[in-house]
Design a protein that fits this description.
By secondary structure, the chain is α/β, with parallel strands linked by helices. It has 10 helices and 9 strands. It has 2 domains: 182 residues, Vaccinia Virus protein VP39 (Rossmann fold, 3-Layer(aba) Sandwich); 63 residues, rRNA adenine dimethylase, C-terminal domain (Helicase, Ruva Protein, domain 3), CATH 1.10.8.100. The strands form 2 sheets. It has a 7-stranded mixed beta sheet with strand order 4-3-2-5-6-9-7, sandwiched between helices.
Length: 261
């Protein structure tokens, strides 16, 4: 068995029942597929059995990329590169169904990049991704809960998110020390348009920098106590960052853009 590299956050999914569950979440026959971090190709082989139209895999590990090339030959396009260095908008003209057992050490960075970089016409049809359970709980958290924060707000901006299941450590080799969760993401038809998504990152970073403090300080830092915004968005500055709902943060990002335009 190929030895997993800790430096690349590798934990190979080996549980056939989970692999079957993943590949049957959505219809992939005659669709264009992207798999990120295929590892030893356990999920890859099941995807191929479903007869996709086009199949791209991105694998950073040179040894694994060569192993996949030898095993699957011309059945898929292998990109031996770091996912964070790839412009996903240029991968394929069709919208992609994306599968990913993401390296846990960079999973939130990958997700944030895909959301921030996605244009109005999003490049993917859906995302089926694995995260540490703790991270997944932050992604799907609602406001007024302790897990709610920057990741929840950015993730829910353009995407509908559904939790599929939790996965125990024994489903992987080597066994991670934590549980994992499988999430399904689909693009929203309607969402608040923010011209530069980096502004949403700025807003959420400043508000959640001191998440236990009241809203007054970060609001004044960003908006200099602008009463018009307070009135329009009905913000109570005595509340804490976790008490503001998703839509208020998206509107705050728009107001931030207006002040700087």
């Amino acid at each position: 068995m190929i030895k997993a590299k800790k430096s690349l956050g590798q934990n190979f999914l080996i549980d056939n029942s989970i692999l079957e569950k993943i590949v049957n979440i959505t219809d992939i026959k005659n669709k264009s597929i992207l798999e990120v971090g295929p590892g030893t190709g356990n999920l890859t082989s099941l995807i191929l059995k479903k007869k996709p139209k086009k199949f791209i895999v991105i694998e950073k590990d040179n040894i694994l990329a060569n192993t996949l090339k030898n095993e699957f030959k011309d059945q898929l396009t292998i990109i031996n590169n770091d996912i964070l260095k790839i412009d996903e908008n240029t991968l394929e003209k069709d919208k992609l169904i994306v599968f990913g057992n993401l390296p846990y050490n960079i999973s939130t960075e990958i997700l944030s990049k895909w959301i921030i970089n996605s244009k109005d016409n999003v490049w993917f049809d859906c995302l089926i991704l694995m995260f540490q359970k703790e991270v997944a709980n932050r992604i799907i958290a609602n406001f007024n809960t302790s897990n709610y924060g920057r990741l929840s707000i950015v993730s829910n901006w353009k995407l509908n998110i559904k939790k599929i299941c939790d996965i125990k450590p024994q489903s992987f080799y080597p066994k991670p020390k934590i549980d994992s969760s499988l999430l399904f993401f689909s693009p929203k038809k309607n969402y608040t348009k923010i011209k530069n998504p980096k502004n949403l990152e700025i807003i959420t970073r400043i508000f959640f920098n001191q998440r236990r403090k009241m809203l007054k300080k970060p609001f004044n830092q960003l908006f200099n106590g602008n009463q018009k915004i307070i009135n329009e968005l009905k913000i109570d500055l005595n509340l804490r960052p976790q008490n503001l709902n998703f839509e208020t943060y998206y509107k705050l990002a728009c107001e931030y853009e207006k002040l700087r335009s």
